[in-house]
C-alpha cells in the first residue's frame, strides 16, 4: 500500500506536537504520552516521603509487596540447589554410560 504525497516548495511545512498547546515537542511531554499512568496510591505517597530515609522506605516498600528475603525464600533456594545438583549428577552418570 502506497500513499501519495505531493510536496509543494512554496508551502512552509511545520511539524506540530499536538500534546502541547504551543505545538512544540518536549521530552517531558513525550514522557507523559508514553508512560503508564496509575491512580495515586496513598501508601506510596506515605512510604516515599522526604523525611523517611531511602533504606527504610525501600524496606517498607519491599515488605508491602511481599518481596523481602525470608527464611522460606532461602529454604526454596536450598531446595533448588539440591535439585540442580541431582540433575547435574544424573546428567554426568548418563554421559559416563554412553
UniProtKB/TrEMBL annotation:
Output the InterPro entries linked to this UniProt entry: RVT-Znf
Instruction: Name the domain of life this protein comes from.
Output: Eukaryota
Which stretches make up the Reverse transcriptase zinc-binding domain?
25-74
What name does the UniProt record give this protein? Reverse transcriptase zinc-binding domain-containing protein
Q: What is the lineage of its organism?
A: Eukaryota, Viridiplantae, Streptophyta, Embryophyta, Tracheophyta
Amino acid at each position: 500500500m502506497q500513499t501519495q504525497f505531493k510536496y509543494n516548495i512554496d508551502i512552509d511545512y511545520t511539524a506540530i506536537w499536538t500534546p502541547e498547546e504551543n505545538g512544540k515537542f518536549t521530552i517531558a511531554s513525550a514522557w507523559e504520552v508514553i508512560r503508564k499512568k496509575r491512580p495515586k496510591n496513598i501508601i506510596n505517597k506515605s512510604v516515599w516521603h522526604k523525611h523517611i530515609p531511602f533504606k527504610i522506605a525501600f524496606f517498607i516498600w519491599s515488605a508491602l509487596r511481599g518481596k523481602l528475603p525470608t527464611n522460606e525464600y532461602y529454604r526454596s533456594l536450598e531446595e533448588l540447589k539440591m535439585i540442580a545438583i541431582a540433575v547435574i549428577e544424573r546428567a554426568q552418570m548418563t554421559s559416563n554410560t554412553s
